[in-house]
Every structure is written in structure tokens, then in C-alpha cells.
Design brief:
Layout lengths: L2 H10 L6 H42 L4 H12 L5 H8 L3 E7 L2 E8 L10 H9 L1 H5 L1 H22 L6 H55 L6 H86 L11 H9 L3
Antiparallel strand pairs: 1-2
Helix pairs in contact: 2-3, 2-7, 2-8, 7-8
Amino acid sequence: MDFSTLLHLWGAASTEQLIAPITVVGFVFILCAWYFVRYFCPSFKLSSQLKKLTKRVQGVKALAPSQRRSELERLFNGSKLEHSWHEYAETLHDQFEFQEGEQVLVRSRATAGAAHFFSPQSVVDTPLGTEFYKHLPGILTGIGIVGTFFGLMLGLQHFDPSTPEQVNASVDKLLKDVLFAFIGSFISIMASIAVTITEKWRLGQCYRLLEAFNETIDGLFDSGVGEEYLAELVRSSAESSVQTRQLKDSLVTDLREMLQNLVDTQVRESLKLADTLSTTYRDSGQLLADQVSSAIENSLKSPLKLSRVRFRPPVAISQGKYRTFFRMFWLPS
């Protein structure tokens, strides 16, 4: 069967025979038009935007590292990727240095990859609605299958097996109904194939451009700041440990010397105090002994003197006064 014969059969077909294929073709056309307007054309627009952004970001690489962040702020301002850029900018780590007494931004370091924020889901899948269009080929194929069964149902509805002539006529009409139903199914399957090819092609193209865009942004900011800070922290910890050990040794040495000096001082002071107390006790004892001796001497001196006077020998007394002496000594006065 050539194409002209098919056109002749289509022209000679009744309205009832064309209901199934026309319905299938109508649904297929509406869905394909929807796909073309809402996915196929916007995918080209998105690709063009990604290409332009990638070129403009590549131009930022020629600037100084301290100026790249501010230039990207101006670049993404007002674009559809502004929110993603702000989230990515919050992860950038600014490094400053003091120049002529002022704190100056030297460069910005990346702590996370741009693909985490400019992800395929947020940049490509959500704006294009790829989740629905991934299933569109299956929907088109299903419409074709349903149209085929619908055409068979219409053909069997008019089948008349009452007489051999009616059977022949009904079979001929049923075959034409099946043919037209298959035409609608064929169109829907071809449409699903076309949608599958173009959808995967455009989606892959957008993904490639987005990957190139993310690589360009990552190339603007040096990464590895976490590893650098970790190495610096380890180095600082090692230096702190050495300094602490040196400080401990110095404190132990100084404390030993201080305690030794304190003990020596206390020993000297104790010896000096012992000497002072010994001298004081000796002087006090000597003074007390002198006082006691003087007191004893004074207390015994008068009686001894008086006794010496009273017991003077008779030879020393003149004979003329013997009687007087005898009376003084032996007689009470």
C-alpha cells in the first residue's frame, strides 16, 4: 500500500471511521504544541542565558581577586539566578590583610562548590518543568494505544454477521477502521519518539552549559580554605605545646630557686633569732644573777658588820673599858 492509496482511503472514509484517528491526532497535536511552547523553545532561551552568563563570568576572571565578588554581585543582580548567587556568596570566606594601617580585602575563598547552589534541579529542571515532560512520550504512546482500541470498538460496533454478504462488508469496514486506528497510533508513537529525542537533547545541552557555568564560577575563587585553616590550627597547636612546655620548665626552675632562697632566708633568720634570744637570755640571766647576788650581799652585809662589831676580841678592847664592853654585850640596854 503506497501513500496515494492511503490518502484515497482516508478521503473515502466515513466520519465514524475517522473519529478515532482524528481524536488521537488532536490530543497528540495539543500535547506536542504544549511541549513546543513550554519546553522546547524555553530550553533554547535558557541555554542562551547560560552561555551569556558563562562568558560574562569568564570576563570577571581578569579582575583582581578582591574585586571579583562585588562584580558578580552586580552581574547577578536582577537575574533569575540572584537567589542562588546570594546563597553561594554566604559560603565565601573573605580574607583581609592590613595595608598602611587599614584592613583591606585581599581575596575571597570558596568553602563549597557552586554546583551545590546552582544545581540542575534549581536552574534547569524547575524552570523547564522537566519532570512532566520526561513522562510525555509515555503519555503520547498511551493515547495511541487507547485510540487503537477505540477504533476497534467502533469497528466492532457496526459488524453485522447476519448474512455472508453483510459479513464481507462488515469485515471490509472493520479492517478500514483498524487501519485508521493504527494510523492514529502510528502518529502518536512517532510523536513520542520525536519528543523523547528532542527532550533528552535539550536537557543534556542545558546540563552541559550549567556544568561549564559552575566550573567557571569555581575557577574564580580558590578552594581548600578549610584544609589551610586546619593545617594552621595544627601548627599553632604544636607551637603552643612547645611554648607551654618551655613555660612549665621555666616556672619549675624559677619556683625551685625561689623556694631555695626562701628556705635559706628562713634558716638565716632562725639562726639570727636563736643568737639574739641566746644573747638576751644570757644577759637577762647575768643581770638577774647580779641583782640576786647584790640583794643577798646587801641583806647579809649589815648583820655581818654588826656581828663583827659585837664579837670583836678582848685583846682589841682596852682594859679600862672591859667592864663597859661586857655590859653592852651581855646586858640589855
